[in-house]
Amino acid sequence: MDCIKIVDLEIFGNHGLLREENALGQKFLISANLYLDTRRAGICDVMEFSVDYNEVCHLIYDYVKGNTYNLIETVSEELAEEILLSFPLLEKVDIEVKKPWAPIGLPLSYVSVNISRGWHTAYLSVGSNMGDKEKNLNGAMDELSKDMLIRIVKKSKLCETKPYGYEEQDDFVNGAIEIKTLYTPEELLDKIHDVEKMFGRVRDVHWGPRTLDIDIIMYDSLVMNSERLTIPHADMHNRKFVLKPLAEINEQLVHPVFGKTVGQMLTEVQAEQIVNCDSSARERLA
């Protein structure tokens, strides 16, 4: 990824834990690495294909000058988000906030906080088998798109599928979406749960009926297993209702553990279903 660097932009701001720091202010030095693909801009020599560092510098200056925070960690976090939301071509930013006059009573050059933040690609599976199913799913996707930290990139078609696991329930309508997000996986999970609650989701029967079900299937190439969340989704490779709409969006998406594409996993699931159907038919005839 290409990078535009802004180094030690000097700004007088009012940030710090001490009342004097908030009232009197002090000097801060802000550096930013802006990550994007600059090839097209370099070939065409046209600014619209890049990011104007003059605009970024003035955004940084106005933001640091116009706000007051206790922590330079917060300055860094808020500034990174503001830059990423303001310049759509950016994929990632590194922000360093230096505090040369940190009031610690000892000689030093500066104290600084350095963070990296960027857009992540996630794939979500969506399903509903209660009420107006398609309306639930379209409404949920609309709610996600209203969040400025989420950008919906692609949507699959919605399709009707048989229930999985617990079969004594109505058929589902399922789909998949690709998003870009600034949320961490846990933050994205919280957001999803909020949307599910908006549509009356009740978690009382495992694999049971639901007005809305949204699962994080993949998040970049991340592999994680916590008490709240497993990524990639632990059972995605066995679920045709997940793989089929996902393959419509990105058939070449690779499972970071199995090393197989979504298309390959879908072919395997479909072949296994044919074998199981043939076995069941033979048993009935025996």
DSSP helix fraction: 25-40%
Name of the CATH architecture of the largest domain: 2-Layer Sandwich
Estimated structural class: alpha+beta
- Give the tally of structural domains: 2
Strand tally: 11
Question: How would you sum up this structure, described in words?
Answer:
Strands 5, 6, 7, 8 and 9 form a 5-stranded antiparallel β-sheet that branches. Strands 1-2-3-4 form a 4-stranded antiparallel β-sheet. It starts with a strand and ends with a helix. The chain has helices at residues 19-24, 39-44, 53-66, 72-86, 133-146, 185-198, 240-250, 262-285, and strands spanning 2-13, 26-36, 92-99, 111-118, 120-128, 150-155, 159-161, 172-181, 213-219, 224-225, 230-231. It has 8 helices and 11 strands. The chain has 2 domains: 2-118, 2-Layer Sandwich (GTP Cyclohydrolase I, domain 2); 120-277, 2-Layer Sandwich (Alpha-Beta Plaits). It is of the alpha+beta class. It is elongated.
Topology (SSEs and partners):
Layout: E1 2-13, H1 19-24, E2 26-36, H2 39-44, H3 53-66, H4 72-86, E3 92-99, E4 111-118, E5 120-128, H5 133-146, E6 150-155, E7 159-161, E8 172-181, H6 185-198, E9 213-219, E10 224-225, E11 230-231, H7 240-250, H8 262-285
Antiparallel strand pairs: 1-2, 2-3, 3-4, 5-8, 5-9, 6-8, 7-8, 10-11
Helix pairs in contact: 7-8
Keywords:
elongated; 2 domains; 286 residues; Alpha-Beta Plaits; 11 strands; 4-stranded antiparallel β-sheet; GTP Cyclohydrolase I, domain 2; 27% strand; disordered C terminus
Question: Care to give the gist of this entry?
Answer:
The chain has 286 residues and is α+β, with helices and mostly antiparallel strands. It is 36% helix and 27% strand.
